[in-house]
């Protein structure tokens, strides 16, 4: 049994320059390590370092293969920690999987996040049933073969399909919005005016809106500067001129030709989902978009007083959004225009732009 430090990382180098893609050679038997505890230092046996090979299956999916050899019962592994890492990228962190095993060899595939550069290093260590851990072996990921691109993300399920638009009996309030006022923003950054209005951005540029409010039923017609893109969203929010925290919203989402209209909710994982609403309808013809739906009962609203605004305090606002890339930048048009403190709203009885609660 060979004495080693329990904290070492073994880098199997194909060259003197660093980690190579060649697999490592497994230790012959248990290894010894010095453990520190309340009673001081003591010698323990740990599993031998595994033989590791890593091959890129797709740009961000790595198949990691390991072999443990013939290991004595006193240090036989029962699980492995398998990680992949974009080691050359500052700030990138490893993605790690815990793999249970009773076999002397095996493999697993680890998927690296697509917001980070592709991984270049795999790291593996073996653990006994009581948590004694081997040295960590690091090898470069072999990308010499035919590395396929990553598959596209699956389309989210349709949870709130839209039908034909409904009709509302309430009076309509129509307002105009300046053209070419699309904003852009990133995660954690406030929206700013785009440098140039491209044809794609014109397709979410709201220039006119007409909204009817019939109790909790909303019917709205939007005119855009250009026909909307295949993938976009529009949020129509019922507001209360007397308070900031109110009320609820209808969200239209078009993705891959599928149109949904619903009310925002969250699932058990904290992810936003669209809940179906009554009278959910949508029509997109040229530059004109029609959106209808009945909001949930106020007791189900997520924010505010959970009561319908009084007739003379009804208000609304709308936002179109467009995200050509998964992680941004994001683009949107606010009606009324965006404000970084108290967002203005349209007062429904006269179409005036006001600040809620003022």
Q: How would you describe the overall organization of this protein?
A:
By secondary structure, the protein is mainly beta. It has 2 domains: 2-140, Immunoglobulins (Immunoglobulin-like); 172-354. Helix content is 1%, strand content 46%. The chain has one helix at 199-202; strands at 2-4, 9-11, 13-15, 18-19, 31-37, 40-46, 51-56, 61-67, 79-85, 95-100, 105-111, 121-127, 136-140, 172-176, 183-185, 192-193, 206-214, 217-224, 232-240, 248-255, 258-266, 272-276, 278-285, 288-294, 314-322, 330-335, 345-347, 353-354. The strands form 6 sheets. Strands 15, 16, 19, 20, 21, 22, 25, 26, 27 and 28 form a 10-stranded antiparallel beta sheet that branches. Strands 2-13-12-9-10 form a 5-stranded mixed beta sheet, with no helix packed on it. The protein is elongated, with a radius of gyration of 29 Å. The model is unreliable at 1-22 (pLDDT under 50).
